[in-house]
Amino acid sequence: MVSSDHLMPGEQGRIDAVVKTKGKKGRIRKTVAVFSNDPDRQTVTLSLVMNVIDPYHTQKFGAKAIFSSPCAECHVDRGKGKTGAALFNADCLICHRTGKPGKPFSDLKGMTQDDIRSATMSGIPGTIMPGFSWKEGGPLTSDDIDSIVRYIKRR
Ligand code: HEC
Ligand code: HEC
Question: Separation of 19 CA from ligand 2 center, angstroms?
Protein backbone atom coordinates (compact mmCIF):
# COMPACT_ATOMS: atom_id res chain seq x y z
CA MET A 1 0.00 0.00 0.00
CA VAL A 2 1.36 3.37 -0.94
CA SER A 3 0.13 6.60 0.68
CA SER A 4 0.10 8.32 -2.70
CA ASP A 5 0.90 7.27 -6.25
CA HIS A 6 1.92 10.80 -7.12
CA LEU A 7 4.93 12.46 -5.49
CA MET A 8 6.47 15.75 -6.49
CA PRO A 9 10.29 16.04 -6.36
CA GLY A 10 11.39 16.12 -2.70
CA GLU A 11 7.98 15.05 -1.44
CA GLN A 12 7.64 12.10 0.93
CA GLY A 13 5.27 9.16 0.96
CA ARG A 14 4.70 6.03 2.98
CA ILE A 15 4.64 2.39 1.92
CA ASP A 16 2.93 -0.19 4.13
CA ALA A 17 4.13 -3.77 3.72
CA VAL A 18 2.73 -6.89 5.36
CA VAL A 19 4.96 -9.96 5.77
CA LYS A 20 3.42 -13.36 6.41
CA THR A 21 5.63 -15.17 8.90
CA LYS A 22 3.63 -18.40 9.16
CA GLY A 23 6.02 -21.36 9.23
CA LYS A 24 9.07 -19.05 9.27
CA LYS A 25 11.71 -18.89 11.98
CA GLY A 26 14.79 -16.76 12.62
CA ARG A 27 16.22 -14.20 10.23
CA ILE A 28 14.23 -13.62 7.07
CA ARG A 29 14.58 -11.03 4.33
CA LYS A 30 11.93 -9.64 2.01
CA THR A 31 12.27 -7.04 -0.70
CA VAL A 32 9.83 -4.48 -2.02
CA ALA A 33 10.48 -3.12 -5.49
CA VAL A 34 9.33 0.47 -6.07
CA PHE A 35 8.88 1.59 -9.67
CA SER A 36 8.61 5.25 -10.64
CA ASN A 37 9.26 7.60 -13.52
CA ASP A 38 12.24 9.17 -11.71
CA PRO A 39 14.71 9.56 -14.62
CA ASP A 40 17.73 8.77 -12.39
CA ARG A 41 16.39 5.77 -10.47
CA GLN A 42 13.39 4.11 -11.99
CA THR A 43 13.55 1.17 -9.64
CA VAL A 44 14.37 1.27 -5.95
CA THR A 45 14.59 -1.98 -4.01
CA LEU A 46 13.74 -1.75 -0.32
CA SER A 47 15.09 -4.53 1.83
CA LEU A 48 13.27 -5.64 4.98
CA VAL A 49 15.26 -7.82 7.34
CA MET A 50 13.51 -9.26 10.39
CA ASN A 51 13.95 -11.84 13.09
CA VAL A 52 10.90 -14.08 13.52
CA ILE A 53 10.64 -15.29 17.10
CA ASP A 54 9.04 -18.68 17.76
CA PRO A 55 6.97 -18.07 20.89
CA TYR A 56 6.61 -21.77 21.77
CA HIS A 57 9.86 -23.60 21.24
CA THR A 58 12.47 -21.27 22.67
CA GLN A 59 11.72 -21.94 26.33
CA LYS A 60 12.56 -24.95 28.46
CA PHE A 61 9.62 -27.27 29.08
CA GLY A 62 8.85 -30.66 30.55
CA ALA A 63 7.91 -33.63 28.35
CA LYS A 64 4.24 -33.43 29.37
CA ALA A 65 3.89 -29.80 28.31
CA ILE A 66 2.67 -30.88 24.87
CA PHE A 67 -0.53 -32.22 26.45
CA SER A 68 -1.74 -28.84 27.63
CA SER A 69 -2.60 -25.49 26.08
CA PRO A 70 -1.21 -23.83 23.98
CA CYS A 71 1.02 -26.75 22.92
CA ALA A 72 -1.75 -29.37 22.66
CA GLU A 73 -3.46 -27.50 19.85
CA CYS A 74 -0.66 -28.42 17.43
CA HIS A 75 0.83 -31.45 19.14
CA VAL A 76 -2.05 -33.70 20.18
CA ASP A 77 -5.45 -32.19 19.36
CA ARG A 78 -5.03 -33.06 15.69
CA GLY A 79 -4.88 -36.72 16.63
CA LYS A 80 -8.29 -36.67 18.35
CA GLY A 81 -10.61 -39.31 16.94
CA LYS A 82 -7.82 -40.86 14.88
CA THR A 83 -6.12 -44.23 15.15
CA GLY A 84 -3.21 -46.10 13.58
CA ALA A 85 -1.21 -44.29 10.89
CA ALA A 86 -3.27 -41.09 11.11
CA LEU A 87 -2.79 -40.93 14.86
CA PHE A 88 0.94 -41.62 14.59
CA ASN A 89 1.29 -38.89 11.95
CA ALA A 90 -0.58 -36.39 14.10
CA ASP A 91 0.96 -37.12 17.52
CA CYS A 92 4.34 -38.78 16.97
CA LEU A 93 5.87 -37.88 13.62
CA ILE A 94 6.88 -34.37 14.74
CA CYS A 95 9.60 -35.99 16.91
CA HIS A 96 10.02 -39.39 15.22
CA ARG A 97 11.54 -38.68 11.85
CA THR A 98 15.02 -38.14 10.51
CA GLY A 99 16.79 -35.20 12.10
CA LYS A 100 14.41 -35.08 15.07
CA PRO A 101 15.09 -36.10 18.69
CA GLY A 102 13.14 -39.40 18.56
CA LYS A 103 14.07 -42.51 16.54
CA PRO A 104 12.75 -42.51 13.00
CA PHE A 105 9.85 -44.82 12.10
CA SER A 106 12.13 -47.46 10.57
CA ASP A 107 14.01 -47.84 13.87
CA LEU A 108 10.81 -48.02 15.92
CA LYS A 109 9.72 -50.84 13.62
CA GLY A 110 12.70 -52.91 14.80
CA MET A 111 11.46 -52.86 18.43
CA THR A 112 9.21 -55.48 20.01
CA GLN A 113 5.49 -54.70 20.34
CA ASP A 114 5.79 -54.74 24.13
CA ASP A 115 8.66 -52.25 24.13
CA ILE A 116 6.86 -49.88 21.77
CA ARG A 117 3.69 -50.13 23.84
CA SER A 118 5.35 -49.52 27.20
CA ALA A 119 7.45 -46.57 25.94
CA THR A 120 4.33 -45.02 24.40
CA MET A 121 2.25 -45.55 27.53
CA SER A 122 4.83 -44.38 30.08
CA GLY A 123 7.36 -42.24 28.18
CA ILE A 124 11.14 -42.25 28.47
CA PRO A 125 12.34 -40.47 31.64
CA GLY A 126 14.99 -37.85 31.10
CA THR A 127 13.89 -37.17 27.50
CA ILE A 128 11.10 -35.14 25.91
CA MET A 129 9.16 -38.39 25.24
CA PRO A 130 6.05 -38.14 27.44
CA GLY A 131 3.83 -41.05 28.52
CA PHE A 132 0.76 -40.84 26.28
CA SER A 133 -1.55 -43.01 28.41
CA TRP A 134 -4.39 -41.49 30.43
CA LYS A 135 -2.64 -42.69 33.57
CA GLU A 136 0.32 -40.43 32.73
CA GLY A 137 -1.95 -37.51 31.91
CA GLY A 138 -1.73 -38.18 28.19
CA PRO A 139 -4.52 -38.14 25.58
CA LEU A 140 -4.49 -41.80 24.44
CA THR A 141 -6.51 -44.84 25.53
CA SER A 142 -4.93 -48.33 25.47
CA ASP A 143 -6.89 -49.02 22.28
CA ASP A 144 -5.41 -45.91 20.66
CA ILE A 145 -1.92 -47.02 21.66
CA ASP A 146 -2.52 -50.57 20.42
CA SER A 147 -3.58 -49.16 17.03
CA ILE A 148 -0.25 -47.30 16.81
CA VAL A 149 1.72 -50.40 17.81
CA ARG A 150 -0.08 -52.40 15.08
CA TYR A 151 0.64 -49.68 12.53
CA ILE A 152 4.36 -49.54 13.41
CA LYS A 153 4.80 -53.31 13.31
CA ARG A 154 2.76 -53.98 10.16
CA ARG A 155 3.94 -51.48 7.63
C1 HEC B 1 1.55 -23.62 16.18
C2 HEC B 1 1.76 -25.03 16.39
C3 HEC B 1 2.64 -25.46 17.55
C4 HEC B 1 2.53 -25.09 18.87
C5 HEC B 1 1.48 -24.19 19.50
C6 HEC B 1 3.58 -25.77 19.56
N7 HEC B 1 4.30 -26.54 18.69
FE8 HEC B 1 5.89 -27.74 19.16
N9 HEC B 1 6.16 -28.15 17.20
C10 HEC B 1 5.34 -27.75 16.17
C11 HEC B 1 5.87 -28.23 14.92
C12 HEC B 1 5.27 -28.00 13.54
C13 HEC B 1 7.06 -28.94 15.23
C14 HEC B 1 8.02 -29.61 14.27
C15 HEC B 1 9.03 -28.58 13.83
C16 HEC B 1 10.02 -29.14 12.87
O17 HEC B 1 9.78 -30.18 12.29
O18 HEC B 1 11.05 -28.49 12.69
C19 HEC B 1 7.20 -28.88 16.68
C20 HEC B 1 8.22 -29.48 17.39
C21 HEC B 1 8.25 -29.60 18.76
C22 HEC B 1 9.16 -30.43 19.49
C23 HEC B 1 10.22 -31.30 18.87
C24 HEC B 1 11.54 -30.65 19.03
C25 HEC B 1 12.42 -30.75 17.84
O26 HEC B 1 13.62 -30.91 18.06
O27 HEC B 1 11.94 -30.63 16.70
C28 HEC B 1 8.87 -30.28 20.81
C29 HEC B 1 9.55 -30.95 21.98
C30 HEC B 1 7.79 -29.33 20.90
N31 HEC B 1 7.42 -28.94 19.63
C32 HEC B 1 7.23 -28.90 22.09
C33 HEC B 1 6.26 -27.91 22.16
C34 HEC B 1 5.79 -27.31 23.42
C35 HEC B 1 6.27 -27.71 24.79
C36 HEC B 1 4.85 -26.39 23.09
C37 HEC B 1 4.08 -25.47 23.99
C38 HEC B 1 4.86 -24.62 24.87
C39 HEC B 1 4.71 -26.42 21.62
N40 HEC B 1 5.59 -27.32 21.13
C41 HEC B 1 3.81 -25.65 20.92
C42 HEC B 1 4.19 -27.00 16.29
C43 HEC B 1 3.76 -26.39 17.44
C1 HEC C 1 8.07 -34.31 21.83
C2 HEC C 1 8.77 -35.32 21.07
C3 HEC C 1 8.19 -36.71 21.02
C4 HEC C 1 6.89 -37.07 20.71
C5 HEC C 1 5.71 -36.18 20.40
C6 HEC C 1 6.87 -38.51 20.71
N7 HEC C 1 8.10 -39.01 21.00
FE8 HEC C 1 8.60 -40.95 21.22
N9 HEC C 1 10.48 -40.42 21.84
C10 HEC C 1 10.96 -39.14 21.83
C11 HEC C 1 12.32 -39.17 22.33
C12 HEC C 1 13.25 -37.97 22.46
C13 HEC C 1 12.62 -40.50 22.64
C14 HEC C 1 13.95 -41.04 23.20
C15 HEC C 1 14.92 -41.25 22.07
C16 HEC C 1 14.57 -42.49 21.32
O17 HEC C 1 14.83 -43.58 21.86
O18 HEC C 1 14.00 -42.41 20.23
C19 HEC C 1 11.43 -41.27 22.31
C20 HEC C 1 11.32 -42.63 22.46
C21 HEC C 1 10.26 -43.38 21.99
C22 HEC C 1 10.20 -44.82 22.00
C23 HEC C 1 11.26 -45.74 22.61
C24 HEC C 1 12.42 -45.93 21.71
C25 HEC C 1 13.49 -46.79 22.40
O26 HEC C 1 14.56 -46.90 21.84
O27 HEC C 1 13.23 -47.32 23.50
C28 HEC C 1 9.04 -45.20 21.41
C29 HEC C 1 8.53 -46.60 21.16
C30 HEC C 1 8.34 -43.96 21.06
N31 HEC C 1 9.09 -42.89 21.43
C32 HEC C 1 7.10 -43.92 20.44
C33 HEC C 1 6.36 -42.76 20.29
C34 HEC C 1 4.98 -42.74 19.84
C35 HEC C 1 4.17 -43.95 19.43
C36 HEC C 1 4.59 -41.43 19.87
C37 HEC C 1 3.24 -40.85 19.55
C38 HEC C 1 2.12 -41.39 20.30
C39 HEC C 1 5.74 -40.64 20.30
N40 HEC C 1 6.78 -41.48 20.54
C41 HEC C 1 5.74 -39.25 20.41
C42 HEC C 1 10.29 -38.00 21.50
C43 HEC C 1 8.94 -37.93 21.20
Answer: 35
> For residue 24, what pLDDT is reported?
85
- Which residues of the chain carry a pLDDT beneath 50? none
Ligand nearest to the CA of 69: 1
Ligand number with the minimum distance to the CA of 112: 2
* Rg (alpha carbons) of the chain, rounded to whole number: 25
Q: Find out whether the peptide bond into 55 is cis, omega within 30 degrees of 0.
A: no
Between the CA of 129 and the centroid of ligand 2 the distance, in Å, is 5
Query: What is the structure's pLDDT at 155?
Result: 67
The Cα-based distances of 155 to 40, 83, 107, 110 in angstroms read 65, 14, 12, 11
If phi over 0 gives left and psi between -120 and 50 gives alpha, with beta otherwise, what is residue 23?
left
* Per-residue pLDDT at 23: 80
The alpha carbon of 96 and the centre of ligand 2 are apart by a number of angstroms equal to: 6
Report the C-alpha gap between 87 and 80 in whole angstroms: 8
Closest residue CA from atom 41 of ligand 1: 71
Residues 6+ apart with CB under 8 A from 113: 149, 153
